[in-house]
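During the second half of the funding period, the structural biology subgroup turned its attention to how the target accommodates small molecules. The most pressing case was zinc ion, which had performed well in the primary screen but for which no bound structure existed. We therefore specified the complex as follows and requested a full 3D prediction, including the ligand pose.
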Amino acid sequence: MTPALLPFIFLRATNAQSGLVTDQKHAFTLSIDWEDFGQLTGRDRFGVVTPPVGDAIERQTDIILQLLTDTRQKATFFILGMLAKFRADLVQRIAAAGHEIALHGSEHLDMRKLTRVRAAADLRDSQKLVTDITGQPVHGYRAPYFSVDTSNVYVLEILADLGLTYDSSIFPMKLPRYGIDNFNRDDALYLLPGGRQLVELPLTVVESSGRRMPVAGGGYVRLFPRIVLNRLFHRLHTSARNVMLYMHPYEFDSHPIDCRTNHPPDQHYPAAKAFLLNQKWNLFRGTIHGKMRALLERYEFITCLQKAEYVKAANSPRVLECPK
Ligand SMILES: [Zn+2]
């Protein structure tokens, strides 16, 4: 038996005792794109070069870690370099709790807008920063804005060159801002140019009457009523799909988020616009924690790396194809 199969055997073995819904053929994964709402808002909306990092990220990280401790689950945290620089202590806290540490790049840039050389530098820098903080190698990556598509699929080659095992950046349907239409929605091992290999763990979509629909992100968890969410995930489970949930720290916050975070004194939203934006962004936010707890209590979760190792051990590599 290969070590990579162990988590799945373990899942089956613990199933009867814990009452959790598990199956060795498929698994659920919770991934957290670990970034700071205020830091990114300050830079991307208001042009602040180095926005400060407030207390919120610590509160949010602790809420997630407590939830995972309470439900005895492990998650994968895709760490953003520009935040890790300020809060290396939190990255160490996440790693010490036994969760997987992976990469979300250095500067939270759209990888499609970078040259190949610049994209490689962003990734290399973030790998060095994060491995220096934890003292452990990293094995996976998620691009900001899911920004790996047909225009820059070479990002996968950069990841393989850096020694990574998997990527989880491809949205297997075309949405207005990202995605590859009809990309293989199963986890798979791909053969890249030059003989390198990489596992892709795409984001989860459900398929109905030949059409795909995204379901597994923080926005969907927030807006779908609990009964709909439970049905969708039950359906994914019974159809033996691998499920990749992707969330952000602010989605778990006990405080409302504010679109005016980190705005410079001379530049801010008009009061009415700020009010409406905040209403929109915080709508049903308070329901996320309970919905996530229910999923974490019902299903067994494994990390992205555990899933990727299983995929690698159980499958022959296939040629990467991006349907037009
Ligand atoms: Zn992000």
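Two results from this model are relevant to the next phase. The longest strand covers residues 28-34. The pocket of zinc ion is lined by residues 33, 35, 104, 108, 144 (CB under 6 Å).
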